[in-house]
Design a protein that fits this description.
The complex is a heterodimer.
Chain A lengths: L27 H15 L5 H9 L3 H6 L2 H15 L5 H6 L19 H4 L6 E2 L12 E4 L18 E11 L2 H4 L8 E9 H5 L7 E8 L3 E3 L1
Antiparallel strand pairs in A: 1-3, 2-3, 2-6, 3-4, 4-5
Chain B lengths: L15 H20 L5 H14 L2 H13 L1 H9 L1 H6 L11 E5 L4 E6 L8 H4 L4 H4 L1 H6 L4 H7 L9 E6 L5 E5 L11 H5 L4 H5 L12
Helix pairs in contact in B: 3-4
The chains are: A alpha+beta, B mainly alpha.
Chain lengths: 219, 212
């Protein structure tokens, strides 16, 4: 979706302001939110792509005005309500009033903690031969799906070169919609700064994205 | 979806009243998840403790220092970083598709996630606020030299800058250049020079004798 989360190339957000000696969490609730998202994801309530899509679906003014973990919290609450794991009346009451909906992997318990400390595996066997190889010229398709995609707007319609082939991976565009893993080839595609930003671009800059095969056409 | 128009938002995210309201809502959600039997709160505590104690840039620093001292490891890291890191038993376990990209005198690498916050957290810890915030995500791909200036970093004007936008589940770790004047240093000494930002590409390693 063409949301405010797709920020590459936008102007007006000001300087980057690193915080010296930044703590891992600024408040205790931030840590609880992170833990709840990890736990409910590991228990099978949702996949990582769906959780990203729910944060992207926050209204633009909410997205921009909320801290990082506030966005995580709002996305988590919406997602659990939509999927029927909690009810809106329970959120209002602050307590459970309905029986639980079964979780795919059961209750998240202490024995499951190790699982969330290693990132998931997203590589999958190839369902078909790769269409592209390193060195191929490709164009990022001019597509604007209203649902989740990992093709940022700033590269759409632009010419690039395939640099690396990462094998086949879960396709976020379908996984986010719970329409299957639908594995696709994944490539690092490099763009010249001037191709993306015009003739005034810094000539020393090159930008790459990791692009799933359905995002690309031969050029 | 719940209606966020009823949500009470201030321009200042650290506003005390909003924090209190958020804190209450977060506690309520944890209560609901616990009462419904979805999560054990002790397991949530354990997740937080694991993040706080096990991950952090010390993991990435060990990998970089080894690459600086062991040419075979450096090559293995550049060929398949997940596999290379997994051979170091003392470093945090790492998931699939970690990619190490090497800085050279000709090319400087910088990592961003314009769409969200993708970051090699097993190697570097949880990302800092600036990495997840709009100024960095918007400008890193369009004006990387301007972003580097915000960090007090400048590169020769002829140096190529390569920005890696982490748009999939691949994760990028920058292998910075080894500082001069460190000949004969041990891996442990070298690791102390490796900063988090030098592994994101928004900084350089410390140099011998610089204040720590």
């Amino acid at each position: 979706m063409n949301g405010v989360h797709d920020m590459g190339g936008m102007d007006g957000f000001g300087k980057v302001e690193p915080e010296p000696n930044e703590p891992m969490f600024h408040t205790e609730w931030e840590a609880r939110v992170l833990a709840m998202v990890r736990a409910m994801g590991a228990a099978g309530a949702f996949n990582i792509d769906t959780s990203r899509f729910y944060r992207e679906m926050l209204p633009p003014h909410v997205y921009l005005a909320s801290s990082y973990y506030k966005k995580w919290f709002l996305g988590l609450e919406d997602m659990l309500v939509d999927k029927g794991f909690i009810g809106a009346e329970e959120v209002a009451a602050g307590h459970a009033v309905q029986p639980p909906r079964p979780l795919k992997h059961g209750k998240f318990a202490l024995v499951d903690v190790e699982r969330v400390m290693v990132r998931g595996k997203f590589g999958r066997p190839a369902p078909a031969a790769a269409k592209f190889k390193p060195g191929d010229r490709v164009r990022a398709k001019n597509i604007h799906p209203a649902t989740h995609t990992r093709l940022p707007r700033y590269v759409r319609g632009h010419l690039g070169v395939v640099e690396r082939d990462h094998g086949c991976h879960v396709f976020p565009d379908t996984a986010a919609m719970e329409a299957g893993e639908n594995p696709q080839w994944l490539y690092t595609v490099v763009f010249d700064g001037a191709e993306l930003w015009g003739p005034d671009a810094d000539p020393t800059v090159k930008i790459s994205i990791d692009a799933f095969e359905p995002y690309l056409e031969a050029a | 979806m719940s209606d966020h128009d009823h949500d009470h938002h201030h321009h200042h995210d650290h506003d005390h009243s909003e924090l209190s309201e958020t804190e209450l809502r977060v506690r309520a959600l944890e209560t609901i998840l616990t009462e419904k039997g979805y999560v054990d709160p002790a397991a949530l505590d354990a997740i937080i403790q694991a993040y706080e104690t096990r991950i952090g840039p010390h993991n990435g620093a060990q990998v970089v220092a080894k690459a600086w001292t062991d040419p075979a490891f450096r090559q293995a890291l550049l060929d398949d970083a997940s596999a290379a890191v997994s051979t170091l038993g003392h470093v945090s376990r790492v998931g699939d598709h970690l990619v190490a990209v090497e800085n050279t005198p000709q090319r400087h690498n910088m990592v961003v996630c314009t769409l969200c916050s993708c970051y090699p957290w097993e190697m570097l810890g949880l990302p800092p606020v600036w990495y997840k915030a709009a100024p960095y995500r918007s400008r890193a791909v369009k004006d990387p030299r301007g972003v580097l200036a915000d960090f007090g970093v400048s590169l020769p004007k002829e140096t190529e800058i390569r920005v890696w936008d982490s748009t999939a589940e691949t994760r990028f770790l920058v292998l910075p250049m080894r500082p001069e004047g460190t000949e004969g240093w041990s891996e442990k000494q070298l690791a102390e020079l490796v900063t988090r930002d030098s592994m994101i590409g928004t900084g350089f390693p410390k140099t011998p004798g610089s204040p720590s």
